[in-house]
Amino acid sequence: MTSIEHLINRLPNYSIRLEVKPRGRAFASMRRAGVTQNQTICIPGLLETDHRTQEFVFSDTILSMLPISVIVSAKRASDFSPFIDDAGEVSLTELLKEQAFSPAIEAGRSYGRQIDKAIRTNGFGAHIQKTRQHADFAKMLELGRIDWFLAYPIEAGYLFGNNVHDHDFTSLPIAEVPDILHAKVACSDTKAGRDIIGKINTIVADISPIELAESYMTHLTTTDAEYFRTLIGETQ
């Protein structure tokens, strides 16, 4: 069961309609809902930022997840050992400078403040491929056309196919980012929005982080799932 299903099943008194929208349009809908106080529109799985909290109200964590990582071919993971520190994390800054490797960066995408800063500073050079063909990154890695790319481990799993295995790819944690991210529900900052956020917080307080993440972990490799369990245990 996904974290969203956990919440919906525990909110029987609400009429909830699910829609799939581009994030920009979803944000616009949330702002329009702020005109009235008797309705709300929410986006689940959103990361809280200072800018977003100025407009919307956020719940407590509904899903902890692994952050953007360096995705490499499992059979070539040892080639990246010189860039891995004692904590088992790779320096993205140093990796971007290494011209012996050819990475793929998705053009126009924000990978988060810390990674975007590293890319702005060091993400240039003939060895770096910038493209919008993100869906092709897994195949490019398999064919040896690139040596690594950036993605969430769960995102990489989808790119390689739903039945992922440890021999498909290896996720290298990045030293410049937090070990774990905390996704939340964001709602229009209305009376209705604040009310449902309060109820969501009551619900998630009674569910363990591992239970909320049970569906998430099925899309990780065995190694990533074990690493995730270790991190969750350390943060409880």
Structure characterization notes:
The structure is a single chain. The chain has 236 residues and is α/β, with parallel strands linked by helices. It folds into two domains: 3-65 and 180-210, Periplasmic binding protein-like II (D-Maltodextrin-Binding Protein, domain 2); 69-172, 3-Layer(aba) Sandwich (D-Maltodextrin-Binding Protein, domain 2), CATH 3.40.190.10. The chain is 37% helix and 19% strand. The chain is built from eleven helices and eight strands. The chain has a five-stranded mixed sheet with strand order 5-4-6-3-7. It has a three-stranded antiparallel sheet with strand order 1-8-2. The longest helix is centred in the C-terminal third of the chain and has 14 residues, at 191-204. It starts with a helix and ends with a helix.
Rg over alpha carbons: 19 Å
The CATH superfamily of the largest domain appears as Periplasmic binding protein-like II
CATH architecture of the largest domain: 3-Layer(aba) Sandwich
Strand content: 15-25%
Overall mean pLDDT stands at: 90
Secondary-structure-based class equals alpha/beta
Distance between the termini: 21 Å
Instruction: Assign the CATH class of the largest domain.
Output: Alpha Beta
Low-confidence segments: none
Helical residues, percent: 25-40%
